[in-house]
Specification:
The complex is a heterodimer. By secondary structure, chain A is mostly helical. Helices cover about 70% and strands about 0% of the residues of chain A. Chain B has two domains: about 1-85, Rna Polymerase Sigma Factor, Chain: A; about 95-165, Arc Repressor Mutant, subunit A. Chain B has seven helices and no strands. Classes of the chains: A mainly alpha, B mainly alpha.
Chain lengths: ~250, ~170
């Protein structure tokens, strides 16, 4: 090894040196040991740069400060969602759309797999009756795109749910639609080996079931608990997962 | 994991980092809150397989840098105003008694580093990130990151050496 520099010793001090013999060389050489001890003593003085103490509940305090602003952003989203939902003239639009996407995705995968090829060349006629030519559509991309749309819808509905105190019949209706679609997408994801995505969709199911069947008849406390669950964890994971689906280089 | 739990888990570490970058308690608190809000809005940019801590540190460092730049601009503006008494650079150090105050001198030495040098050194020395992680956090090459840390270490050693012998 060439001459040992102070930069080498700095890397050794921080455990970053990629020369395994350096530590032994320093230990064996009085000159190197002295230099290393000197550097260590000087750098250890930096440990005196100690921040002011924060109490144990500092994190909770930060959360109290920022959560109203997060809620405000949720509300802004919720208002946009209300407008968005109001534009639907057909109550079962969500189910038809979701089922169409799910059916297409499942069929795309099945055909692609059974045919021993990655693309679908046969035209399909999905639930909404529109003939769609699926030539050259990659089944993997199709599923990803469809699930992304599904998660976007779930995100909108859950955000709406998390920010309204009054129950609405449409909540259960949308949740039922999404539950059906969610199961189809979960099966399709599992079939394609997208285990992380399948696991996430499986995690979504209990809440969708509860929302579909219990939110209307349950107590205010039940609704509050479900809203907390949505606000504190699920929306966060949902957003992350959906963004990851937008990035094909990230494996889900 | 819920966002609230992430806030509870990382607030202390983010405060320590923000304070060490700014040496200002109030500013550090503001930076922590702002960084979490930015994190909330930018969740889509977070890649699950990378460290959430590194990602948060990146946002904290950037937020602190923005704060420091605003402060620098404000100071520059103030010094351009003739009615304000300007303070020469290098004399803005904490009041130190005749006795050697190691803590204050260490702080002064840290604050005399450039923002980039200080950030890189803090992330290495106190947060224990690898050089590769620091390079990612600070959006620079690994080589540039190494050199930045070397420069910071050299400056710190020169500033702190007298304290070792006393």
């Amino acid at each position: 090894m060439s001459k040992i520099t102070d930069d080498d010793l700095t890397l050794l001090f921080y455990g970053e040196h990629d020369e395994p013999a350096l530590a032994a060389m320093v230990a064996e050489s009085a000159e190197l040991s002295a230099r290393f001890d000197s550097l260590s003593a000087e750098l250890r003085l930096a440990d005196n740069f100690v921040p002011p103490h924060r109490e144990d509940d500092y994190g909770a305090d930060v959360w109290r400060q920022i959560s109203p602003r997060l809620d405000l952003e949720h509300l802004e989203s919720a208002n946009r969602i209300k407008t968005w939902l109001a534009t639907f003239s057909q109550p079962r639009f969500s189910l038809a759309g979701a089922l169409s996407f799910a059916l297409v995705a499942v069929l795309a995968f099945t055909l692609g797999r059974n045919g021993g090829q990655d693309s679908i060349t046969e035209p399909l006629n999905p639930v909404n009756g529109t003939a769609i030519a699926l030539a050259d559509i990659d089944s993997n991309r199709l599923l990803t795109h469809s699930v992304s749309g599904h998660l976007e819808q779930v995100n909108l509905v859950l955000t709406q749910f998390a920010n309204t105190t009054e129950t609405s019949p449409s909540e259960a209706e949308y949740a039922t639609d999404m539950l059906v679609a969610n199961r189809l997408y979960r099966q399709a994801a599992a079939s394609q080996g997208k285990h992380k995505l399948a696991a996430f969709l499986a995690d979504l199911e209990p809440l969708l079931i509860e929302l579909a069947y219990q939110a209307q008849s349950g107590s205010a406390a039940t609704r509050e608990r479900m809203q907390q669950e949505v606000r504190n964890g699920l929306l966060f994971r949902l957003r992350v997962m959906n963004k990851q689906l937008d990035k094909p280089q990230i494996s889900v | 994991m819920a966002f609230r739990e992430l806030v509870l888990e990382h607030s202390h570490a983010m405060f320590r980092l923000a304070w060490r970058l700014t040496s200002d308690e109030r500013a550090a608190e503001d930076i922590v809150q702002e960084a979490f809000l930015k994190a909330w809005r930018k969740l889509g940019n977070f890649r699950m397989e990378s460290s959430f801590k590194s990602w948060l540190h990146r946002i904290t460092v950037n937020t602190a840098m923005d704060y420091l730049r605003k402060q620098a601009r404000r100071k520059q503006f103030e010094t351009e105003e003739p009615e304000f008494e300007s303070v020469p650079m290098g004399t803005v150090t904490p009041a130190i008694d005749a006795q050697i105050d190691i803590r204050a001198q260490t702080e002064a030495a840290m604050m005399n580093l450039s923002e980039t040098e200080r950030s890189a050194l803090l992330l290495k020395h106190f947060e224990g990130h690898s050089i590769k992680e620091i390079a990612q956090i600070m959006e620079m090459t690994t080589g540039a990151c190494k050199q930045t840390i070397f420069r910071a270490v050299k400056k710190m050693r020169i500033a702190l050496r007298p304290l070792v012998t006393t």
